[in-house]
User: Fold HTH cro/C1-type domain-containing protein from Acetobacter oeni.
Amino acid sequence: MRKHFVCHINTRKFRACHSPPMYDRQIMADRLREARLKKAADMGVKLTQEDVAAATNVSRSHVANAEGAKTGISLDAAYALAQFYDVSLDYLTGLSIAPLQSPGGVFQNPEERTLIRSWRAMDEAERVALAIVIDRLGAKASPSDAA
Assistant:
């Protein structure tokens, strides 16, 4: 059964409306757990919620409650977990089926993923400096194009 709330429509009359769609905690809970288990398998270790909490600076109870769909999760905690698991926030909340979105849809290799993450983490001055380095390396690689 759909929950209703009262909304105002430019008059003094009120009517019942459908509530706006919200994210499904269970989707996020399932994806958080799957991401933890996948990361553990990739690392070849048992990765507990306590380990995740220590690595992300998110409390263990917050991690456990989010994985259990018992409570919502703060944006800061969701961001920290997404970064740790190497997935997008869209994926965690159910807005995407792909764990990590990329401009072209798929990264060609792990180095591309690392470069994109590094670029996104840079400030503007670092990006300008990197662009200068790339231009100089490109000029060395093809001297005929540099003229």
